[in-house]
Amino acid sequence: EKEYSATKEKLEKDIKDLKAEHDLKLEQLGKEKEEKWARDRKTFTDEIAHLRAQVATQKDQLASSLK
After folding, report:
1. pLDDT digits over 3-53, tens only?
2. Which residues form a coiled coil (predicted)?
3. DSSP states of 1-27 as a string?
């Protein structure tokens, strides 16, 4: 009976520890994904701004050459 109780308590503690570790890893993965999305979004936004500037420059050059 005592051995069963001790084993049960150990297993319950192990399960609790594993769940806490799992929850922590999930939280970390979520943060990493959010950070990656934020970096990617900034990269795409910067790329779009760069392309728009190139288009504006080419548009100005074309307008100048047509004068």
Report:
1. 888 999 999 999 999 999 999 999 999 999 999 999 999 999 999 999 999
2. 1-35
3. -HHHHHHHHHHHHHHHHHHHHHHHHHH
Count CA atoms within 13 Å of residue 23 on its CB side. 6
Residue 4, pLDDT score: 83
pLDDT at residue 1, rounded to an integer: 79
Letter for the amino acid at 36? Answer: K
Distance of alpha carbon 23 from alpha carbon 5, whole angstroms: 27
Which run of H or of E encompasses 58? helix 2-66
Gap between the terminal Cα atoms of the chain: 98
